[in-house]
Amino acid sequence: MEVDGVSAGEILVVNAGSTSLKLNLVDAEERSESVDAVESVDPGRVAAAAHRVVHGGPHLREPVLIDAAVHERIFATELLAPLHNEPCLAAIDRTRAVLPGVPEVAVFDTGFHVTIPAEAAVYPVPAQWREWGVHRYGFHGLSVAWSAERAPAMLDRPAEGLRLVVCHLGGGSSVSAVRDGRSLDNTMGFSPLEGVPMATRSGSVDPGALVYLMRERGLDGEELERALNLESGLKGLAGGSGDMREVEHAAAAGDESAALALEVFAHRVTAAVAAMAASAGGIDALVFTGGIGEGSAPVRERLCDRLRFLGVELDRERNAAAVPDCDVAKDGSPVRALVVRAREDLVAARAARGLLRGAEG
Questions:
Q1: pLDDT of residue 358
Q2: Domains in the chain: ranges and CATH
Q3: In terms of pTM, does the model score above 0.90?
Q4: Which residues of the chain have pLDDT under 50?
Q5: Burial 74-94 (b: 16+ CB within 10 A, else e)
Q6: Tell me, what's the pLDDT at 2?
Q7: Has 109 been annotated as catalytic?
């Protein structure tokens, strides 16, 4: 296959998340421009479209050109990531309709986490379940990969030996352990539902509670899936939409449910950071990224206060004035606290460009 203009053309990065659709044109110099809609893109500028795909199941981990077979495999994993793969497939179909002939590349969020060792990836469940692909994949890989690249540059240290705990906090949230630039663990698992509380997702819940709800309260699988994905997390605790800004505002106005939601979120994320530090063999820097990680100084302060036992010493003035990319730890803090702008667009564009250059060769 030959793809014209891959080196010079722009990559349209399509990021269909659980709470948003982001479109960016990334040129060969890695300058990124946001666009409002696929329809507003000049086809003559685009060498390829790169789609962030959250879940490709056990077979799709590396970047791949999207053909009918790949499309079908992404569709087959829709139940594993219902908030993500459905809008992703819609975006793939829309891009193909608006930009016919433009190569489309799937870049998987699970790809960065292929280095997670078996001890962290394997669930202690029956062998038959494991044969069916029930194991921990890890997610937010594009975001974590960018933080793993930016942190060494910000700290003026090589990636080798550097131990990071990356908190991608947003509509979906996860915490990852990274050492030597490689993923060692991630709080999300078989699906993007496991781990810490999120905007509308529960995070980890005792499976026994779910069995009880099915057996004793008559809830079926569809009802459980909807409740855990759309009616839980910050929304379930505080009401409203589950948006962190809304919760913080309500808590500041005296809403006790919102205040509890903030405490639950902080408690669970703090515990996750400690666990990921153990997986990384220690911690040299705590990285905040994603909409909440970058945008909420109160959340960063709440978490860092709880993490002082790990050596995190926050500079409150730096934190309050933080603009990514920056370090908000005190001078002399044993552990640095970095705020990194999420650049999933660059990671996806690089992956697509590299794949297509290989196809040209």
A1: 73
A2: 10-116+356-360 (3.30.420.40), 141-339 (3.30.420.40)
A3: yes
A4: 1-3
A5: beebeebbbbbbebbbebbeb
A6: 40
A7: yes
